[in-house]
Amino acid sequence: xxxxxxxxxxxxxxLERRHGLADIVERGAxxxxxxxxxxxQRLGLxxxxxxxxxxxxxxxxxxxxRIEEAMRMRRDVYSERLKRYGEETRDTLIAxxxxxxxxxxxxxxxxxxxxxxxxxxxxxxxxGDGDEITLKMRKMLxxxxxxxxxxxxxxxxxAVTTLEETARTARRVMGGAHPLTTEIExxxxxxxxxxxxxxxxxxxxxxx
Length: 208
Description:
The protein is an all-alpha fold. The chain has helices at 11-19, 24-43, 47-63, 67-85, 90-105, 109-126, 132-147, 153-174, 179-201. Residues 1-7 and 18-22 have low confidence and may be disordered.
């Protein structure tokens, strides 16, 4: 069985479909998470715990398909962590990745790509190229580059190059059977297909 049979055509659409699988239990979880956050805010819980609860609530919003609300809450969490702790903490980088993921599901590539270009160099410096967060960021940046309807041929080429590098790192650090490695390699297959399609339709320099 070829890997392409399982490769997602669009990684952000896969996230969107997962987030749309809401049921009664998940909707009840939203109510519970909102109540817990409100209670702890009134009780004056430590700010780090408030941010953690906000992140959990954002995840719950995403699971029930309330992506816009999830994005806004993740944006607020990232903004607060950035303001209080700076850009070089793991929690800030995780918050940035979560926020960018929501932007990607919402197809707001004009915001996703600059955000990743800002935070990925920090993640590589602070966490290292082989860290799971860094690998996820690079995979999602590459996905945004070739999925974006406004992508140029150079953007798609950059996506392929980034995914090739990221796949090698993931395979070396995590092994070929790790779920993140297989996700990156599946995304790479799609990026290569997108590049071939673009190169077939793109006029050669000097032609015409």
